[in-house]
Amino acid sequence: MNVPLIHRIEEFEGWAKIHQKDARIYSEGDSWFAYPGTNVITEIHDDAKGDPVILQKAVAGDEASSMLSGKQRHTLVKELSWLKERSDWLKKKGSKFKIDPHFIVFSGGGNDIVGKFDLPLLIQKAKAGSPPAQFIQQDRFKNRLEQIRTAYIELGFIRDEFFVNCPIITHKYDYPIPSNQGVSVVGIDITDSWMKPFMDDLGINAKDQKGIAHYLIDEFGKMVDKLKKNKKINNFHVINTQGTLGPKDWQNEIHPTPKAFGRIAKMFRDKMKLLRPDLATRL
Predict the structure, then answer these.
(1) Which burial class, exposed, middle or buried, applies to 173 when counting CB atoms under 10 A from its CB (0-12, 13-18, 19+)?
(2) CA angle 108, 110, 113 (to 5 degrees)
(3) How would you label 256-282 residue by residue, b for 16+ Cβ within 10 Å and e otherwise?
(4) Is 128 inside a domain boundary?
(5) Rounded (to 5) percent helix, strand, coil in the chain
(6) What angle do CA 178, 184, 188 make, to 5 degrees?
(7) Could you tell me if 53 and 6 are in contact, meaning their C-beta atoms sit under 8 angstroms apart?
(8) Could you tell me if residue 45 is inside a domain?
(9) d(Cα 99, Cα 237) in Å, to the nearest integer?
(10) What is the pLDDT of residue 182?
(11) Which range of residues forms the domain containing residue 103?
């Protein structure tokens, strides 16, 4: 029986009981995990050798700071708490069924930086050809990175409360190329592009725009890498996705093509196999 992508925690338990030999994954994130049609999660699901049980909670447009605060944080805590209670109850009853997640996969931070209500607060005018850092309002950007960092650490705290041995796996995006291409679904334009229109309005040329985009994502990646050594968040794994995609691997300004999403998904599956060799033949 093929397992669909699951959106309700109660369904996760049921499917997990049926597919005990398969990976159990809790997925939270942004459009890299929830892009219409094909995304990282659909490719982890569809290309697996087995039938992974994936609770898909990612929503396009979500920011890391939003996912780990307010109502979204409450939902995360409530769902993992419910799952822990059910898991403990099954163990107490001597049940053979296991429903603990094997992995928590997370995609967050990109929208906190390039979102239409975020990027305008981070970019400033500078002389053409200046180093990318001079186009950035550094105090604001450092504060934004700290907000994202805090969100990741909060995710670790929540994981530790309920499933301390469950690995958290995340990624670092890749270097987008500013363009006028926004999201288009079946030929219908859904959104404008994110970075280029704003930087065009500031009179920033194409070469500098590319340098700015590279700088922003590079600094984000450095911050996430440092979390691997942070004692506040353990069992935390970062996939180095930066440098994976070429110019033809982008279907719009900030989202990979379906084929490229598949390559990123394979990197996630490969990491899962390393962490859980017992599941390798099912991923």
Answers:
(1) buried
(2) 125
(3) beeebbbbbbebbbebbbeeeeebeeb
(4) no
(5) 50, 10, 40
(6) 140
(7) yes
(8) yes
(9) 22
(10) 64
(11) 9-112+145-184+223-282
CB contact set of 71 (below 8 Å; sequence gap of 6+): none
Length of the chain: 283
pLDDT of the residue at 183: 72
- Give me the CATH number covering residue 259: 3.40.50.1110
Count of domains observed in the chain: 1
Task: Answer left, alpha or beta for residue 243, where phi above 0 means left and psi between -120 and 50 means alpha.
Answer: left
**Per-residue pLDDT at 234:** 92
Q: Which amino acid, one-letter code, is at 191?
A: T
Residue ranges in the chain modelled with pLDDT below 70: 1, 182, 184-190
Q: What would the two tokens of residue 16 be? A: 């997990």
191: which 2 tokens? 């959104």
Please give the Cα distance from 217 to 212 (Å, whole number). 9
Partnered with residue 65 across adjacent β-strands are none
Pairing of strands 188-189, 184-185: antiparallel
